[in-house]
Amino acid sequence: MLKKSLELLRLEAAETGSHTLRRSLGPFNLIAIGVGVIIGAGLFSLTGIAAAEHTGPAVTLSFIVAAIGCAFSALCYAEFASMVPVAGSAYTYSYATMGELFAWIIGWDLVLEYSVGAATVAISWSQYLVKFLSKYGLHLPPQLVMSPWETATLADGSTVSGWVNVPAILVVLAITAIIIRGTQGSAWFNAVVVALKVLVVLVFIALGWQYIDPANYHPYIPQNTGTFGEFGWSGILRGAGLVFFVFIGFDIVATMAQEAKNPQRNMPIGIIGSLLVCTVLFVLFGYVMTGLANYKEFKDSAAPVAIAIEKTPYGWLSTAIIGAILIGYTSVILVDLLGQSRVFFSMSRDGLLPRVFSQVHPRFQTPHKSNLLLGAFISLFAGLVPIKVVGEMCSIGTLLAFVMVCVGVLIMRKKEPDAPRAFRTPWVPVVPILGIITCLVMMLSLPGDTWIRLVVWLAIGLVIYFSYGKKHSKLAQGLTVDPTVEPAGNQVA
């Protein structure tokens, strides 16, 4: 239950040298990083699944519910990011407020969140690639674009099972190679593809609006089937829980604090700005998509946008948008991989994970070994697991992290009321409490098997912590993060 003091965290933030990350990100870069991951799989893939199985046209309401929960959490994230500009996001914040064990749980949870987030997008990227190539007469073997748990019906009526999703594996490995070369270069690459994705969303909304069929909105909230989460208001809640994971964009912005210029000012701008921009686009996009095609047509599809576009006369738009989505998806994978490696970087520097995860490349100043290991793991995950499973796992991991950050703000306001805060969460304790309640309600609305996977993942993490992390914790040994610095026993709370 040892805690890091704010003084120690600020000391870490002030460190310089070849063993630290390079500060190269301004407010525009941070907003672009947030928008880059928010506009991704949730918008272009899981929106269709949520509409077909849980909400019907009322998927727009699910986005609003999710955005409200995000707004409460985003305000709490912004306060912490302005106080503690260190890599690690919710992991670091929990270390300062609730102690090492809770920090480990959240850090391990974030690893799950970012891993399955990247895998979800990679799987959807693969499905859009199949559609894109088919327009030019190129057909990939179905066994090589599906996980072993999925099947497909061929033109002759026969059914085949998947072997491994090869395109999903290859795109993760390619993006891993890009981020190893440096955060600034990755940020510029991300900014370009983010601009392209926003343009795609705006074009889809503008051109698709005039071909909306009002009949597709009736009933706007389909009647519940008698099972919780299958349409009706419970379906809207479950849909919100499913699409919630797309909002981890501002969470990932918080992991980049140690690479931000003037983080006390720029971190709140990046966190809140990216959330505001995307919420408006999400609602409009969901409205147009469910207006173009009946929600039942999206069932079992990770590429619902392609289905919706087929309802318009713009054949060229379908090809252009699918191509742009393919390019845009790469930024989501990129930001997820960046976020995960930075959490591992922080946990490793604290001694809770092996040192290999915090070793920095002498030229690029990136945690290259961590990137390689995590890229290999996530690529296999993307190649072997269905999209619906990874989407739900990412949502519950995100929600748990948001709950802990909201709790952390309440604790820090009690214990450190006079600590300097460049940004203060308004209406405390109301906002953090509402954030906790909203996130817990959406967590409870998710399927039971998703909870089982979360518990199993956290159990594996606790085994690793008590067998390795607890014994090697630098804080428990009275050390600062840098072992060359004098022992910091007086900085242990």
Could you outline the blueprint of secondary structure elements for this entry?
Layout: H1 6-14, H2 27-38, H3 41-55, H4 59-83, H5 90-97, H6 100-134, E1 151-153, E2 159-161, H7 166-180, H8 183-209, H9 232-243, H10 249-255, H11 263-292, H12 304-309, H13 315-349, H14 368-384, H15 387-415, H16 430-444, H17 448-472
Antiparallel strand pairs: 1-2
Helix pairs in contact: 2-8, 2-10, 2-11, 2-13, 3-6, 3-9, 3-11, 4-9, 4-11, 4-15, 4-16, 5-6, 5-15, 6-7, 6-13, 6-14, 6-15, 6-17, 7-13, 7-14, 8-11, 8-13, 9-16, 10-11, 10-13, 13-14, 15-16, 15-17
Structural features, described:
The protein has 493 residues and is an all-alpha fold. It has one domain (26-483): Amino acid/polyamine transporter I (Up-down Bundle). Helices cover 65% and strands 1% of the residues. It has 17 helices and 2 strands. The chain has helices at residues 6-14, 27-38, 41-55, 59-83, 90-97, 100-134, 166-180, 183-209, 232-243, 249-255, 263-292, 304-309, 315-349, 368-384, 387-415, 430-444, 448-472; strands at residues 151-153, 159-161. It is globular.
Compact description:
The chain is mainly alpha-helical and 493 residues long.
Question: What keywords describe this structure?
Answer:
single chain, disordered C terminus, two-stranded antiparallel ribbon, Amino acid/polyamine transporter I, 493 residues, mainly alpha
